[in-house]
Specification:
The chain is an alpha+beta fold and about 375 residues long. Helices cover about 15% and strands about 40% of the residues. The relative contact order is 0.06.
Length: about 375
Amino acid sequence: ELSSPLNNYILDDRGIIVTTNQRGENYGKQGGLMGKALGGGNKAKMYMFDYATGKQLLQDEIDVAGNVIGYNYDNTGKRIVIATANDKGSNKIDIIDVAAGKEAIRKPLRVSGNIRDIKLVSKGLLYITDEEINIMDLETGGDAWGKSIKVKDYVVHGFKDENTMYMAVDGDLIKFDAATSTPTKIGSVSLDGKENPSGMQFVNGGLVLSSSQNIKYFDLTGKEGWKVYRPAPGVSLAGKIALGVVAAASVAMMAANSYQAGYAAAGGATYKGQYMSNQSAADSYARDADNWGAIAVASFQAMNKRFKATRTTATMQSILTKTDDGKDEGVGIEIYNKETGSKEGAVVLRDKKPEYFFDDIGRIVFWKRNDNSFTGVFF
């Protein structure tokens, strides 16, 4: 039995390592028998059990900084580096000496942003978050670089091999040599339609950066090659008019409820005042005003929304756009080869938010036409 729900497990040679979820702040704070039954504190724990008997192999369970979301062994195999996230949004990297059954550093390294990846390199543990990139020194638990690479808008990365990584970070294409653990800018990244790359893949002696409407090839020196850009289909005029009506009505309702909130707070009689105090009525009207305001904002945003529905496989990527399948024109998908940038086919779906996937080996697109049927078309 564990002190809180299972979070993760690691199949170690010495036994199965189990980590538990960090419990919420109110967990175990009840008084009396219930509080004792639930236990106090809100720490995540690490255990190790014998595979055959289930016996606890550690002298004591180990407190860890939060829910374990990733791990990696050091070069000795005796220590595990774990990436954690806790209930308060704090993300940390910790080192556990499994052989000794205790933490290997004085305190976990706190990092900015959500942890995307961790990997052992020559100088320590490379960690990548959506806000910073750095290397953790495994001996001290501190940063190996004096200053992190800061991430403002985006970071995508990929490992070409064990020693070489490429990163696209805020407009820069960076090559990372694991032998020296130093980053080098080799080029710039600019995608059409003001998009940021969301994926990276190594193909045909280079790499491809992709997004909803873009595919762009670079050689491994950072030189740009071919590219594909297809604009996303926009909202129809009729749709914009309908959304405009919703937005205008929402603004009117927001204003009306804001007025009623102020009137009730001042002591005026209101409809809700029949059932609640003036202050309660004022609070209720204020919440209604906020809700209508949120609807208005969403409606205005939707008027300019570009619908996107990208799918990708190892060799191909589809792009949702206004396309031509040779017979008819309309909203659909175009499918491109990621090694050459050539167009492999197109299928008109007449749906700006299709639910579909494609089989690049059988060259079939399957999409859901309605709640009761789906269709398959060769491309």
